[in-house]
Specification:
The structure holds 2 protein chains of 2 kinds. Chain A is built from 7 helices and 10 strands. By secondary structure, chain A is of the alpha/beta class. Chain A has one domain: P-loop containing nucleotide triphosphate hydrolases (Rossmann fold, 3-Layer(aba) Sandwich), CATH 3.40.50. A 6-stranded mixed sheet of chain A has the order 6-7-8-3-9-10. In chain A, strands 2-1-4-5 form a 4-stranded antiparallel sheet, covered by helices on one side. In chain A, β4 and β5 form a beta hairpin. In chain A, α3 packs parallel to α5. The C terminus of chain A is likely disordered. Chain B folds into 2 domains: 82 residues, Arc Repressor Mutant, subunit A, CATH 1.10.10.10; 78 residues. Chain B contains 8 helices and 2 strands. Chain B has a two-stranded antiparallel sheet. The longest helix of chain B has 26 residues. The model of chain B has no long low-confidence stretch (mean pLDDT 88). The chains are: A alpha/beta, B mainly alpha. The interface between A and B is medium-sized, with 15 and 16 residues.
Amino acid sequence: MTLAHLPVVTDPELSCVEASDLCLSFGATPALRGASVTVVTGEILAVMGPSGSGKSTLLHCLAGILRPNSGEVRFRGRRIDALGEEERSTLRRDHFGFVFQFGQLVPELTAEENVALPLLLSGTRRTQALGAARELLAQVGLDGLGRRRSGELSGGQAQRVALARGLVGRPEVLFADEPTGSLDSLNSEHVLELLVAATHQFGTTVVMVTHDPRVAAYADREIVVRDGKATSLTPGGGST
Amino acid sequence: MSVPLALLGLLEREPSYGYDLKRDYDAYFGRGKPLQFGQVYATLARLTRDGKVTPGEIEPGGGPDRKLYAITDGGKHEFETWLSQPIDPAPNLQTDLFVKVVFALMLGRSAEGYLDTQRAAHLQRMRELTVLKRKGDLVDALLADHGLFHLEADLRWIDMTAARLPALAETVRS
């Protein structure tokens, strides 16, 4: 089943991703205890909170990586939490992009092959995918480094490759988990500048987990996750 | 920032007119609070009286007070002394934040709610400074960074205090 065939249960104009009353436990340990959040289309939302509060688990539920034990997740108004693994995988591939703390590049591949990977997996021809990858690498300031493998890149360069990979498929939502957590202040700022510029250019919605308020300051608003529940600090913010 | 010391520093670079001193002060140190001309000339008059600067002759056709000011050896000594001394680290052990948290706990109000409100205000200010940093020049960026690091320190304190509220509540209510 593709996403287009899923029933619409809410007004998609109001939200891009919406989660209500999510609960999820790992064994006997509850990670989410009724978390609700609305991500507005086009915004950059920072998800903050102390270590172990459930913020990464919430991100993984919003992105369709994890399925909650109870509660609902909707993307553009369509429920995605009830989809099977294969359908959620297709959803992630076709609509979402991801950036993680340590880049998680495939070490055997070159930088441009890493960036092209999401396109190659969705069936784009190799020449076309690599062309798009090179274009995006130039945009993040890595023109000419496309043939290097991840081991030959600095931490800041590798993270910019990861950002390019997250954006190459022009995703509707970019999920970023501590996207600058492994970088020093200047490299962190450089990556955030690129993230903000690129997502504004492409109209991408961003959900970004961070413990760092200087990173959160690049977002339009923030929520705090505590004890598995989400709280909006911004008056009128779309979470409970 | 002491205006007399700032003017001495600018004059140590090169002899200058009052107009130039105001322009350079505003460019580097006057963000949001530019120096008034009256304050420039009043300060220069005091520095002249105290032997820290010397005014040149009034130049013809140059307005009411077009004098080229130069720093004296006494002025250089004072500026050098100031520049070489560290600033008091100012531990701020009794901040308003702390006082509000203690009173909230003591009087049975929501200290956590107050900390959340404060956290939101700090993050909003950090967003504003981040915009200034991204869109301004290097001086703006460095000044914004200074504010951002201080706000970040406050936020760390807020997080730490939020985690210790139950223990602090016991202390203030005992």
